[in-house]
Amino acid sequence: MSEIQTLKAREVLDSRGNPTVEVELTTEQGIFRALTPSGASAGQHEALELRDNDPKRFLGKGVLKALDNVNKKIAPKIIGLDCCFQESIDTLMIKLDSTENKGKLGANAILPVSMAVARAGAAAKGLPLYVYIGELYGVTPHLLPVPMCNIINGGKHAGQENSIQEHMLMPTGAKSFREGIRMVAESYHNLAKILKKKFGATGILIGDEGGFAPAQVIDISERLDLMLEAVAAAGYEGKMKIALDPASSEFFYDGTYKIGDKSYSGAEMVDFYVDLCNRYPIVSIEDGLAEDDWDSWVEMTRKLGGKIQIVGDDLFVTNTKRIKKGIGLEAANSVLIKLNQIGTVTETLNAIKMAQDNSWTAVVSHRSGETEDAFIADLVVGTNAGQIKTGAPARSDRAAKYNQLLRIEEELGGDAEYPGIDFRDYA
Ligand code: PGA
Ligand code: ZN
User: Fold this and answer.
1) Are 122 and 153 in the same domain?
2) How many Å lie between the centroid of ligand 2 and the Cα of residue 419?
3) Atom of ligand 1 nearest to the CA of 38
4) Is 110 found in the same domain as 255?
5) Using CA atoms, how far apart are residues 62 and 77, in angstroms rounded to an integer?
6) Which of 229, 355, 395, 424 could cross-link 362 (Cys pair, CB 3.0–4.6 Å)?
7) How far does the centroid of ligand 2 lie from the alpha carbon of residue 83, in Å?
8) How far does the centroid of ligand 2 lie from the alpha carbon of residue 365, in Å?
9) Ligand 1 nearest atom to the CA of residue 365, by list position
10) Is 52 touching ligand 1 by the criterion CB < 6 Å?
């Protein structure tokens, strides 16, 4: 038994310079902190991120109401409880909120408490966080993830309208996580050289997730050609695959998708991806279609699901109700996992479980607005999920996750496994 002694929240900054919630919880074992990330191309069906909407502070983005909810509503209920009761503490907060979407307390108030409780629980049991998450989840953690590294940023993360959002490298040909992240970092620096030579200083402007955001390169084929040129220059031809996150809800208007100056129906979008997959080593496409365009998702999975991973992010929002619907419809074959889309650690683990129980993959993910909190690194290993999406191999908000994975890999030693090209077989 290790009692929660104190709990308080404070307003701190995220990687975009916007306010976010940090909580601090104490037990006999010490102080445990957790911070909330924040999306920009957030899905309509996500749990609520509570903002103050007071234009005099942080352009309306203040989180003082969420702090109040932690300090005045959540803290009195959970101080004195045993921090090892993760599920009952999460359930208590869900009931205290009482809405479908964490609309009263805010997911940004509930989630950091849930994460800090998990850290305290791990310490109470004397376990590293990933091992403790493995206990909660019911597996022995051993699987390092193949990273999806976003080295060209577009869309909302780069101030561009009607453009594909994420262009990611997956080091599937590496023997270990450590080798994979080196391959990606070397390719990233080669891409910088290529872009600088072609476009000068504006070619190497950086987007929200640390990748390059060259406004001169809008065409998807041109972007992918540049990435592959960088991979070849780094000496890794054939050892890297490509993953895309178009985040297409952002360019979906009344039934029509718009990329650059071109328009597509749902069926035409699917054919657009079929063509891309024929021309490039693409192994995964996330949110190729909009968050409520279920019919087109089913069509895409029928045409491409046998060949590549079809990941639902805004479609599923880490919510088992929507994942269940998607499994029933065969609308995808993989779920993106974001803690703050649903708001507690327990519900996040349930979402991963539902995916894995149905032989779907689960890809653990950061948000475009991040912090130094590397919880997702422990989460991905703690569930043996096998894939993580956490941005470019640059900027401390992204590197923090990769660095924690390097530590975990070292700690696991000979027990560590890296799935490489077989990343879909571990579901
Ligand atoms: P977001 O983007 O964090 O801005 O929502 C990430 C994603 O779409 O995967
Ligand atoms: Zn996405």
Assistant:
1) no
2) 22
3) 3
4) no
5) 24
6) 355
7) 32
8) 9
9) 9
10) no
pLDDT digits (tens, 9 = 90+) for 283-319: 999 999 999 999 999 999 999 999 999 999 999 999 9
Give the residue numbers annotated as catalytic, written as ranges: 209, 338
Q: Best mutation site among 150, 165, 252, 387 for ligand 1, i.e. most ligand atoms within 8 A of its Cβ?
A: 165
Residues 155 and 234 grouped into a single domain: yes
Sheet holding 30-35, edge to edge: 6-13, 19-27, 30-35
Q: Which two tokens stand for residue 364?
A: 């653990």
Which ligand places an atom closest to the C-alpha of 150?
A: 1
Q: How confident is the model at residue 426 (pLDDT cuts 50, 70, 90)?
A: confident
The structure tokens 């999306």 sit at 39
Asked whether 42 lines ligand 1 (CB < 6 A), one says: yes
Residues in Cβ contact with 298 at an 8 Å cutoff, skipping those fewer than 6 apart: 329, 330, 331
- Confirm whether 136 is domain-assigned: no
Helix or strand (DSSP H, E) at 323: helix 320-329
Residues 210 and 279 in one domain: yes
CA distance 266 to 309: 18
Measured N-to-C along each axis, helices 107-124 and 86-97 cross at an angle, to the nearest 10 degrees, of: 160
- Residue 392: exposed, middle, or buried by beta-carbon count in 10 A (0-12, 13-18, 19+)? buried
Which residue among 16, 18, 41, 339 has the greatest number of ligand 1 atoms within 8 angstroms of its CB, and so is best to mutate? 41
- Which residues, in sequence order, are CB contacts of 405 under 8 Å at separation 6+? 144, 145, 147, 177, 181, 377, 380, 381, 388
CB 319 within 8 A of CB 340: no
Question: What would the 3-class secondary structure string for 51-96 be?
Answer: CCCCCCCHHHCCCHHHHHHHHHHHHHHHCCCECCCHHHHHHHHHHH
